[in-house]
Amino acid sequence: MSNTNNIRVKYLALGLLVLFILCIQCGCSKDNDMNQIPAIPDDPSVERPIVVKEPSSISLSGPWRFLSDINSAGIDEGWFDPGFPDSDWIEVEVPHTWNVMPDYADYEGVAWYRKTFTVDEDITDYHVKLHFDAVYYEAQVWLNGSYLGEHAGGYTPFGFDVSSLIDKENVLAVRVDNIRLPTRIPDDSFDWWHYGGIVRHVGLELSSKVFIERQVVTAVPHITGWDEADLATVSTSVQILNTSSDNFEGMVVADILDDQSGESALNETVVQRVSIPPGGRVAVELRAEIQDPRLWHFDHPNLYRWSSVLQLSADERLHGKEDIFGIRLVQLENAQFILNGEPVRLVGMTRHADSPEYGLAEPAVFMTADFDDMKRLNMVFSRPVHYPQDESVLDYCDRNGILLIPEVPAWQIQESHLSNESTKAAAEQQLREMILTSINHPSIWAWSVGNEIDSNTPAGRDYVRELVAVSHVLDPTRPVGFASFRLDQNQENDASALTDFVFMNEYFGSWHGPKEALPESLDRIHELWPEKVVIISEFGLEAGWTSARWMGDTSLLNNESYYYIEPGTPPDSEQVFSIRSRLIADQMNIFRSRPFVVGAIFWTYQDYRSEMEFKMGLLDQRRHRTAVVDVLRVQYSPLREIEIDIGEVSDGRQTAFVQLVTRGPVDTDLPVYTLREYAIRYSIMATDGNLVSFEGEILLPTIAPASDWNGEITWEVPPDDYLVEISIVRPTGFSVWENRFDADGEQLD
Prior knowledge:
17% of the residues lie in helices and 34% in strands. By secondary structure, the protein is an alpha+beta fold. Helix 6 runs parallel beside helix 7.
């Protein structure tokens, strides 16, 4: 891609052609297909007929047996053998990481998991895949004593064809190691914990022997106005595999369903005949149009389902698959971020999948609580963190409205490692797995190929060039970048010149140098690449940045050019919170004054376990809130001013006069976007806050950036003393702002 041309995420026509070629390639090459399932060779004399089997799954999460293998003796001693005694092993619940167990908190090495399970139904005639959502870091897997294979990389899914091995009674054994090595991704040093274990869900996926492996859905709207379209073209590549011994002659019948109502969005279904020889794989290209589509937007996360059914005949269904997708258009054009036709500037934060109770193996309900809180802090934009996310995170962001830039865990890799072919191969493998697994998620608008690598070196530039090219082949519809921390000086040498946007980690006023260098660096970046948007991928302040451990003697930095924190100051002190709050306000104003800075992502939502012991979170590791939370929420609000004036009681009624002023215009403020279908909610309640005597809601009109709205709320006064709670609410139900007032109109919070 030429760096002198406008970078547009509109090159979808070419993308469809490349995706078509890609799906065919994925079907033919084990090297190119992250879901290529190593199969146990079958006896060719055994018939494998096509059998009708609706897709189903059997969860293998839950109770497992666990034992550490400090001396790596498990393979020699046959720990994978079905008859090996494991009754004295520790019972654990998978998903699981041993690093949350007191006796194994710091254990880095090898451990084993075993599970005995029974399959109630006869599945010998079906295709059966053993699927792992993630195992950290390297996994070797046995089923009923037979070795299935291995997988390296701790955050991406993998699986095995176990159709010929599965029985009624089964023993599954997994050897896991979490050892840090310079040729791994992440390598031998990184700023989060290497939680070893089967960290995400495990299960069996059952289907007919002819089945739909994967669908790649590409939706292109015809934009007619801001967040409006009159038509969307949806093209889907449906990859089908025939593992039977028979030739398959049938058809694919496809429909598009509104995810909310379940109703078809098409006038008629799409039908195409297909023929697949035994052992063959084909990619079927289908196309449909939706009239007046409901667009996906972070405030209106409308979703559709592409449903494909494989049929032997008009009334004989063989296999079906549904994939969620959204219809939206992101354009990076003239240093603007344009979402569905509207130039916007967005904000968010990062979050590690980490807690003292669960480590990396967090349950969905725990993740949801964190993300609900971040949505209340006005997050609509995020690089989730340094590694591919669990499917439940991506689904949450699809349904609740957060634009994402997922990343492979290439963290601070030095030049010597970047030039190592094993390192690059590991990064490319994880990049392929991440993209091919998550390509249909509408919340994902871009990809990142690393964080804080030596990007101003020849090896760094080669790494970025190669992985950006791989990303564009795998997914021509999304831009690609990486988070650079080499943009504080000599910016012209940085590999950001090779990417579709500038992704900048900045810690000016601390690690990166004086405060005054931030605007200078931003202006130099824009001078070098005037057509590119700049996204601040990290900003924040570490409580112990002045420690001699990191900076040597910092006493000379105790001046107005730095956010100086006296060494040894407790990280949970009011002094730290006050200085961090000041940095947020100062730097947000600098970002606002530069319209090419279209996004800002705070580091980080919560503290997390790390050998470096950085403390930078809005919350601590146990989710105790700091005073910085409210500061960031105000800075991240799309409303610059909110005034509530509650009048006196008259004739048993009371009125609140409300004035709202949105941030804007887009070239001088951040965040900036149009407010559509927002609402004011109000509740009249007892002074203990429990008994609600009256609730109401006013739907607000569309409010453009740099605009105001004035209105009134009136309620009947209850006989007893009362409180009034007023909140401004997004269409997704998350509050932008809320507060309580007493009966005299005094603000309480």
